[in-house]
Amino acid sequence: MKLKDFFRSITFRCIVVLASIALLSGAILSLLNDILYVSDAEVFQRTINKIYTDEEVGAEAIDLTGLDTENDYGSVKNAYAMDNGQYLVEATGKDGYKGGTVTAYTAFLAEDGALTGIYKVVITDNVSQSFISKMDSKYLAGYTTAEASAIVGGTEYFPTVPGRTDYIVTGATKVSDATNNAVNAAMCFLRTQVLTADGNTDGEA
Amino acid sequence: MKKNDYKKICFDGIVANNPTLRLVLGTCATLALTTSAMNGIGMGLAVTVILLCSNVLVSLLRKIIPNEVRIPAFVLIIATFVTVVRMVLYAYLPDLYDSMGVFLPLIVVNCIILGRAESFASKNNVPAAAMDGVANGIGFTLALTLMGIIREFLGNASFFGIALPWDFKIEFFTSSAGAFFVYGMCIALFNFAYSKIEIALSHRRAHRRALPKDPAEMREEALVREEK
Q1: Which of A8, A142, B6, B9 sits 20 to 30 Å CA-CA off B122?
Q2: Between A10, A36, A133, which is nearest B88 by CB?
Q3: Nearest by CB to B87, which of A18, A25, A33?
Q4: Per mean pLDDT, which range of A2-6, A164-168, B96-100, B150-154 is the poorest?
Q5: A133 contacts on B by Cβ (under 8 Å)
Q6: ipTM confidence
């Protein structure tokens, strides 16, 4: 086939049409991506609104520099000291389904430099957790019960060992583990790094 | 295209060829997202917007897109609109975006949209394609909303998120098995009602044909014949 014939062929026409559509789509999407961009601050504000539905609460970020954000349960991404005396921690729990993770915001109640319970848990992200939809509001409400407060107020952590009956969802045991680990990672971080024995409760390292 | 043709397109999309209850298309989203009426409406409206836009663009480009690459071209067009809808929902309706989860990007492979692009929009003009998109979208939305209302009412004792005064609920209806059960019942009832209406209409048409013609109508026909 000569070059001239190729440019007149249906093959060339197909390539041109597909490339044109792809280019035009790309240009439109790039433009819209810029127009409809949602900033990190806006995403955080949305999460705050989900947690504190009835009141407007201000947050002061805890400086994580020099603090150990990794522990046996997972890692802490962000931590905040709230105006109402609570602590809000964004943590990723490990050991989920297919070795994946669950990321959640946990709002902890605190009194006199010690944790006393959990106000709310909101899941924001996950990796490979195909049954994450089973972690509904009913399951997450389990973290705010008196039994859960006893765990948070003591020295224990939410169980992720086989044979347990609490804090799991049937059919999504591994996702429950990762969710428990996200809460545990946040709790461990607060207990060992923020609310330390020397009475440092204002979140400064 | 005549006014009656548009009526037929509309009737086909919403009732006669309802994508969910007659053609059983888009089943994944239907089963997964009808746990509440609001989810059903949200998904239905998202699909309607994408159907309308993709049908219009496919119809506009139908003489430009070579037959050999029509399916990849349609998928590219649909994917673009799905991404736009995702961006808009994430920016302005984050709760709905979260509740739709993975099923929002999966609209790209929804067979209703690709099916309408391939079987209708690529063969008809823009107004007809737009009407077809809207009609099928409305048919899909109505079916999802109906299922969402039933499942929410029975499974969560609420109506569009508003809690009902009683606390009687059957958890089965919020499960996957409940979704299949409600879907099956909706299909059965819809097809039963549709066949009854169709029989009644065909009887009426047959009865009309059997009746002697109106004298005024006969005079008009004679005039038309004479003019010819």
Answers
A1: A8
A2: A36
A3: A33
A4: A164-168
A5: 101
A6: 0.76
- Separation between Cα atoms, residue B187 and residue A148, nearest integer Å: 45
Count of C-beta atoms within a 10 Å radius of residue A148: 19
Q: Looking at residue A203, what is its pLDDT?
A: 44
User: What is residue B7's three-state secondary structure?
Assistant: helix
Residue from B64, B108, B176 to probe the interface with A (highest A Cβ count within 10 Å): B64
* Amino acid type, B33: L
Do A148 and A128 lie in one domain? The reply is: yes
C-alpha A133: how far from its chain's center?
Answer: 14
Q: Does B50 touch chain A (CB under 8 A)?
A: no
Question: Residue A129, SS3?
Answer: coil
In a domain, B217, yes or no: no
In a domain, A157, yes or no: yes
Strand stretches in chain A, DSSP E: 59-61, 74-82, 87-93, 101-111, 114-127
pLDDT at B125 (0 to 100): 93
What was the pLDDT predicted at A205?
A: 35
- As a whole number, mean pLDDT of residues B141-151 equals 95
CA torsion sign, B146 to B151 to B154 to B160?
Answer: negative
CA distances from B34 to A94, B21, B47, B97, B115 (A): 31, 14, 14, 15, 22
Q: Is residue B1 scored above 60 in pLDDT?
A: yes
In degrees rounded to 5, what are phi and psi of residue B30? -60, -45
Tell me which residue range forms the domain holding A25.
Answer: 3-35
**Model pLDDT, residue A197:** 52
| Tally of domains within chain A | 2
> Which residues touch A17 (CB under 8 Å, ≥6 apart)?
B64, B65, B66, B69, B73
Phi, psi dihedrals of residue A204, rounded to the nearest 5° = -95, 140
Residues A159 and A69 occupy one common structural domain:
yes
A201 within a domain of the structure (yes/no): no
For A157-182, the pLDDT digits (tens) are: 998 876 666 777 767 888 999 999 99
Which stretches does DSSP call E strand in A72-113?
74-82, 87-93, 101-111
Contact A10 B66 (CB under 8 A): yes
Q: Count the Cβ atoms, other than its own, within 10 Å of residue B74.
A: 23
The HSE-up count of residue A83 (CA atoms within 13 Å, CB side) is 7
